[in-house]
Amino acid sequence: MNPDDPFNIGQHVDQSYRDSIGTIGPDGKRKWVFPWQPKGKMYNRRSMLSVIYLCLFFGLPFLKHNGHPMFLVNVLERKFILFGAIFWPQDLVIFGVAMITFIIFVVMFTVAFGRIFCGWICPQTIFMEMVFRRIEYWIDGSAAHQIKLKNSPWTTEKVIKRISKHLIFYFVAFLISNTFLAYVIGVDELFKIINDPISIHMGGFTMMLIFSGVFYFVYAWFREQVCLIACPYGRLQGVMLDKNSIVVAYDFKRGEPRGHIHKGDDPQSKGDCIDCGMCVKVCPTAIDIRNGTQLECVNCTACIDACDEVMDKVHKPQGLIRLTSEHKIVNNTKQGMLWITKAYIAVLSLLLIILVALISSRQNVETTILRAPGILFQKLDTAHYSNLYQIKTINKTYNTVHLILKVESPAGAVVKMVGDSIKIQPESKYDGQFFLVLPAQVMTGHKTKVVFQIYQDGEAIETVKTNFLGPFYQ
Ligand code: SF4
Ligand code: SF4
User: What is the pTM of this model?
Assistant: First the structure.
């Protein structure tokens, strides 16, 4: 028995698929994929999800609160706004935790639910299958018409179709790149670039054209190759999936031996797969899912719809291709979620709760107090010593902030600000210095713990701890 093929499926299957990938022809050149347009419940659900997704993608940069953007990812100026809250580079801890959460989330989600993200949520697939591919079906017609058009000579009809399709493609790519730019620089800046003379915003305008060109190239030509050879997430599938992962899978126990049933054949001699090839025809990455889980499968579920329709026609139960795990197929079980999947979901939920707690407890005004470097202490008189401190405060709000610095402990300590009081302009930083004078009798040795309270509008908003340095013999 072959351990890689315990059910001996190989006897029914042409194994040559192992020698090549579906998008490269025998001559080694790119084989253009003309997938049939799917129809069915999964495609309808994906369509609904993508409408929501596209509304959010194109709408979020326009959302404002009190005239300020609700979402901004300005990597150039290191300014990030999420749900109206401004995040500074000083919020690195949150970003670090968010990144770790994201990576663990991606790995665990993939282990539990396979590559469902690729087919249902990834912008590449949503734009490719739900926007550009639909435009193509609309202008060029069905997959069969597209093949015919490709092989036909350059007639007026073909020229008009090609020009109009690529003009629309470029226009949509231009919209996408402008929206991405709006996430980076904000819609106000974007509209300035659009409305002002080009010479004023040469840099922004050039970026716009470059990104539009990149998106046009990806969706008009590169297409499924992004998922097959460029995307690192896709490359990692092999190490993240296991036998319990939920994937788009062909029930080989039910389907094999595949083949048409002819009049007079014993119905028991064949499995449920009638070898119609519909699951292959709708596949946007040109694979045959009956060969098992493959790197190229983006879990778009188009083959599920196609096969369900075939099963309805031949009066067999739906679900020959379905979202399930290899474990369930091999063991012929319909049992719900495995304990390991539930454990993954629990860990993912916990991570999300931690992240939300971190974000919601984040401070809008953040202060750091450190002793001025290179200076020990000053003896003011026999009973008092002073230390010089540096205070840095970040105002992450859109309002001017006035702060008062008070000492909570030790008692008798006095703050003497150098220069103006603490006034911080919106979205800016304050750098100042102050002396702290301590009576000798409250000092607890060489280092004395000091606790400051920061007040805003009479309310204590932050506690900062530091040390006061005194003489060694104190
Ligand atoms: S095998 Fe099915 S789920 Fe996978 S990419 Fe092809 S059509 Fe989509
Ligand atoms: S669509 Fe279903 S019946 Fe047709 S070849 Fe694919 S698995 Fe077999």
Answer: 0.81
Residue-wise DSSP of 428-442: -EEEEEEEEEEEGGG
Q: Starting from the CA of residue 288, give the closest ligand.
A: 1
Name the closest ligand to CA 308: 2
Question: What's the pLDDT at 171?
Answer: 96
Q: Which domains does the chain have, with CATH numbers?
A: 1-362 (no CATH), 365-469 (2.60.40.10)
Q: Say how many Å lie between the CA of residue 445 and the centre of ligand 1.
A: 72
Atom 8 of ligand 1 has which residue's CA nearest to it? Answer: 300
Q: How confident is the model at residue 463 (pLDDT cuts 50, 70, 90)?
A: very high
Closest residue (by CA) to atom 6 of ligand 2? 279
**Mean per-residue pLDDT, 105-120:** 85
What pLDDT sits at residue 317?
A: 95
Q: Which residues pair with residue 462 across a beta bridge?
A: 454
Which DSSP helix (H) or strand (E) runs through 156? helix 156-185
| pLDDT computed for residue 21 by the predictor | 79
State how far the Cα of 441 lies from the Cα of 443, in Å rounded to an integer.
6
Compute the distance from residue 257 Cα to the ligand 1 centre, in Å.
21
Query: Measured in angstroms, how far is the CA atom of residue 143 from the centroid of ligand 1?
Result: 16
User: What pLDDT digit, counting tens, does each position of 230-279 carry?
Assistant: 998 888 877 888 888 889 999 999 998 898 877 777 777 889 999 999 99
Residue with tokens 């040109």: 286
